[in-house]
């Protein structure tokens, strides 16, 4: 693309955003507060412990240790080093964009090559179980059983993306030496990694906290701005216009037009898209297909977060984007295949494809976890930010 044209497009987009915010300040403020609430209550407190722990595990060589142990199965399956198993597991447990964050760290540590990092980042960004089961299934659909189906489709779809992306970069492929399972060699690599990182423990811990807080502040900014953009596009009738284009595509797959606007909203921001989809009166299976694609695609908000993280390295964004399209397609197909065995056949009321609106487990551990984060998440966020400020002030005073 011509650089002058890019300059015009970027400037026009910024002008449109500024003008739209001035024209609709109330709606912009409402959308901004909604994004801030999501980050303040859920995203920050759920991701910060994982980010800090991951930084420490990398610094102390634990990731290298598990990388050596997992090499024998990660290399044949996904054509990535064994350290990718840690990124894969943490990406599923903590949610996006931790997979990209950890992949970038491994690349900066030179534990993986550029092509291996691009393979790895394409299938290690996933939603965490709390968001899938508590926020979407219990919070939006009022049905915890649905969360099992969504989680299986989401994580299994990501597995298939990893299998497909193992062939990416074949021209630059170099067959590594076959590695055997060796605890002795794993301990040796752990020890060597720790010795190379000869910083004091206090310095390592402080760096882990600061780096994690910086990443989470960036994530919060993206969540807020994309929440505002999504709202402004709807007010400006741009979302309905784009939805009309998707109506034709939906008709090919037998999906109703009423799902097109929630689908477009979900392409920008997952939470709003899933919520709008759950509020439609369409059959439940069709709603699940849309939600599975939205979760797999990650939404442009998450993709922008990933792009910002990858920009600090030489990892290209395009393979990740292709992985998101594949993930959305795989998850939607799996939803069609697994809806009957994982949901309708074992649902107590046997309601089949009728939307369930009154089925809630009041004592569900997932609903309790969601309530816990909503109650105590803001206090944890504020306390963590305060610690970060104190660490920075202490370093500046030296």
From TrEMBL:
Name this polypeptide is given: Sporulation integral membrane protein YlbJ
Any Pfam family hit: Gate
Transmembrane segments: 47-67, 120-141, 147-168, 204-226, 284-310, 317-339, 376-393
UniProt keyword terms in alphabetical order: Membrane, Transmembrane, Transmembrane helix
Positions of the Nucleoside transporter/FeoB GTPase Gate domain: 43-140, 216-311
Domain of life assignment: Bacteria
InterPro entries per record: Gate_dom (IPR011642), Spore_IM_YlbJ (IPR014226)
Lineage: Bacteria, Bacillati, Bacillota, Bacilli, Bacillales
